């Protein structure tokens, strides 16, 4: 089980990193129509927020980069 919290403290839990990406997408006020579209927007927002380069090659790579950038923090 993967467990993380977002910058605003919201906990997320999923069976896979792709599940974490899906959960993050669903948290949007107006969710993007596809996971790929959400990843593109998420990467753009991270770049504007702190200059992070977030990959969009796969949901797993995307979530790993969000963790590395400090957008997601592992929960024990």
Chart the SSEs and their pairings.
Elements: E1 2-5, E2 11-14, H1 17-26, H2 35-50, H3 59-68, E3 73-74
Antiparallel strand pairs: 1-2, 1-3
Helix pairs in contact: 1-3
Strand content: 5-15%
Distance between the termini: 11 Å
- Give the H and E element order: EEHHHE
Tally of domains:
1
Overall number of strands: 3
Mean pLDDT: 95
* Alpha-beta classification: alpha+beta
Kindly state the percentage of residues in helix.
40-55%
Query: Gyration radius, to the nearest Å?
Result: 11 Å
Strand order of the largest sheet: 2-1-3
Biggest sheet, in brief?
A: 3 strands, antiparallel
Annotation field: number of helices: 3
Poorly predicted runs = none
| Broad shape | globular
Features:
alpha+beta, single chain, 47% helix, three-stranded antiparallel beta sheet, 76 residues
Q: Could you explain how this protein is built, in words?
A:
With 76 residues, the protein is of the alpha+beta class. The chain is globular, with a radius of gyration of 11 Å. It has helices at 17-26, 35-50, 59-68; strands at residues 2-5, 11-14, 73-74. It starts with a strand and ends with a strand. The protein has one domain (2-74). Helix content is 47%, strand content 13%. The longest helix has 16 residues, at 35-50.
Task: Briefly characterize the structure.
The protein is of the alpha+beta class and 76 residues long. Helices cover 47% and strands 13% of the residues. Helix 1 (17-26) packs across helix 3.
